[in-house]
Each structure stands twice: as C-alpha cells, then as structure tokens.
Amino acid sequence: MFSEEFNVRFYETDALAHVSNTVLVGWFESGREPIFKLFNPELDLQNWSLILASYKVDFLEQIFYGQKVQVRTFISRIGRSSFDVYQELWQQQKKCATGTTTMVHFDYQSKQAVAINKSIKAELLANSYSG
C-alpha cells in the first residue's frame, strides 16, 4: 500500500460546506505518484509511459475542511499491459470515498499498449489489495 496525506484547503470546499466532488480525482491522482515513479523514476514527461483508460469514484461520506485526509493506494488487478489502482480516501478514521483507475503501459510513438516488465509487475504485486 502507498499512502499520502493532504490538508483540505478552503478553496476545495463548495457552497454546501464540504469538499467538492471534483477534488477527489486530483487527490487520487496525487496518490498514484509512487506508481508513476515505478514506470518513470524521474517523472520525465518526455518519456512518459502510462495512460489513463478509465476511472470511477464512489462517494461514501462527506469530506470537510479543517481535517486532513489520507489517500491509500493499492493495486487491485494486473494484466499484460494494464492494471487497476484501487484507492480509498479516509478522514477522521472514516472511509469517505473509493476509486478505481485503469492505467495502461503505453508507447505514445506507436500508440499501442506495451507489456509491463517483470520487475515492475513484482513491485505492483507487492502493493496489491487484499480486501
């Protein structure tokens, strides 16, 4: 599991006094940074090799300003060239949201998916979700 903690910023709240639903997608992306570094340790955008294929977010509880949030990131599926990232967002010991993102190891020049090498697969497996 990878874990990141964020302060909820005032501007991330909405007129209903809780965190706007659009903010979670950004937090989840930030929580995937350790995974990005497995494929590209320097995060060199000229040599990027991942593409986002889909994402889904489920909102379970309201999230509020003034209390930190934690994003927990796991790998829930690994295929030949793609994998699913399962994430949970926690605040005050409550699971407030979950998300699943499908990422594809991708060659932008050939515009094709590329097999994930064995060493990266092993790192992904080491961070897999056990339910």
TrEMBL record:
UniProt keywords, alphabetically: Hydrolase
Keyword Hydrolase: yes
Domain of life of the native organism: Bacteria
Pfam families in UniProt: 4HBT_2
GO molecular function: fatty acyl-CoA hydrolase activity
InterPro entries: 4-hydroxybenzoyl-CoA_TE (IPR050563), HotDog_dom_sf (IPR029069)
Family: Belongs to the 4-hydroxybenzoyl-CoA thioesterase family.
Protein name: Thioesterase superfamily protein
Species in which this protein is naturally found: Paraglaciecola psychrophila 170
